[in-house]
Amino acid sequence: MTRTRILAAPLALALAAGLPMAAFASPERDQRRSEEQRAITAATVDAAGAIAAVRAAGYGTIREVDWERGAWAVKATDSAGQRVALRVDAQSGAVTPRQR
Hints:
Organism: Falsiroseomonas stagni DSM 19981
Oligomer: single chain
InterPro entries: PepSY (IPR025711)
Keywords: Signal
Protein name: Peptidase propeptide and YPEB domain-containing protein
Pfam family, one: PepSY_2
Strand order of the largest sheet: 1-2-3-4
């Protein structure tokens, strides 16, 4: 029983110390997520459209699709099988290489 109390006390302290920071960061994080959701909803090209645009541009296997700064970031392979990072414009669907 004593051993459990010794282990529980540091855990309780860590949780108590982390709660105020989590409560402080939560509204900002929620605000960013809300803004991101509005941007995605307003985009003319959705994730499926971005995938279709990348395939139409001649790229192969698509490994990942993410929303970044108002555009779709797509990781795919080129015709030689090399990994490439692409940007798909959310309004026009234009596919361009992404600068890393």
